[in-house]
Amino acid sequence: MAKDVIIACDFSSKEQTLAFLDRFTGRKPFVKIGMELFYACGPDIVREIKARGHKIFLDLKLHDIPNTVRKAMSVLSHLDVDMTNVHAAGTVDMMRAALEGLTRPDGTRPLLIAVTQLTSTSEERMQRELLIGATINETIAKYAENAKTAGLDGVVCSPLEAELVKDNCGAEFMTVTPGIRFADAAADDQVRITTPACAREIGSDYIVVGRPVTAAEDPVAAYERCCREFIGE
Ligand code: C5P
After folding, report:
1. pTM of the entire predicted model
2. In the chain, N or C terminus with fewer CB closer than 10 Å?
3. Which of 173, 177, 212 is nearest to 198 (CA)?
4. In a 10 Å sphere around its CB, with 0-12 CB exposed, 13-18 middle and 19+ buried, how is residue 78 labelled?
C-alpha cells in the first residue's frame, strides 16, 4: 500500500489555507480538510484545493443516525475527494449506511475510514467519563473489526495501535494515523503520540500531521522531514 504524509490544514480561512499551500512549490502534499476549514469556507474550498492538484482527505467524522449519515454522504459523494470518514462509535449499521450513501451510481467512491478512538482520548478518561469498562486497545480492535464488517477500507487510530489493527483486520486494512510529533516537540492536546519514523516502523499507511507542520517556522522543511522519516524520501 502507498505510504503518504497528509497535512491537516486546520485553518479558518481560504486565504490562510491557500497562502500556506502556495509555499509548497515541489511536491503537492495530500491535504486534510477538517471541520474548521470546511465549516468556515464550505464545499468550494474542497473544489479549489482539488483543482490545484492535491489529493484530499475530507475529515468531517460523521456520527448520526444511519439515515442522516447516508444522505449526508450522498451529498459529499459529489465532491471529488479521495478519502472521508465517520466515527466507528456510530455502529456497523451507520457505517454501512455511510458506505451506501458515498457510493456513486457508477459504483465508484472515495476511500471510507472510521475513527476508532480519538488520539486525544486517554484510557483513564474513556473509562471514567464514558463509562467504557474495556481497555482502550480492546475498544480499538473491536471498532476496527466493526468497520471491516461494514465494508470500510480502514480506520483512523494512533500509530501505536496500527499493528493491533493490522493483526485483527489484515495487512490490507488501512491505518491512517494522526497523533504525530517530532521527537523534539511538544505534544499539545494529543495523548497517544509517536514520531513519523516510529509510525513507519509500526506500519501506518498514512500519517496525518497538523501543527508540527502548519505551526513550524518553515512548514515546507517540516513536511519534508516528515516525508524523509515516514516514507524515506
Ligand atoms: O495538529 P495535530 O497534528 O495534532 O492535528 C491532528 C489532526 O488529526 C487534527 O486535524 C485532528 O482533528 C485529526 N485527528 C486526530 N485524532 C483522530 C482523528 C483525527 O487528531 N483520532
Report:
1. 0.95
2. C
3. 177
4. exposed
Residue 81 pLDDT grade (very low, low, confident, very high; cuts 50, 70, 90): very high
Please tell me the distance between residue 8's alpha carbon and the centre of ligand 1 in angstroms.
7
Put residue 174 in one of left, alpha, beta given phi > 0 → left and psi -120 to 50 → alpha: beta
Q: Is 119 in the pocket of ligand 1 (CB under 6 A)?
A: yes
- Superfamily in which the 4-230 domain is placed by CATH: Aldolase class I (3.20.20.70)
Residue 140, judged by CB atoms within 10 A of its CB (0-12, 13-18, 19+), counts as: buried
Q: 127-161, pLDDT tens digit by residue?
A: 999 999 999 999 999 999 999 999 999 999 999 89
Give the residue extent of every domain in the chain. Answer: 4-230
- Tell whether ligand 1 has an atom less than 6 A from the beta carbon of residue 208: yes
Ligand 1 center from residue 210 Cα (angstroms): 7
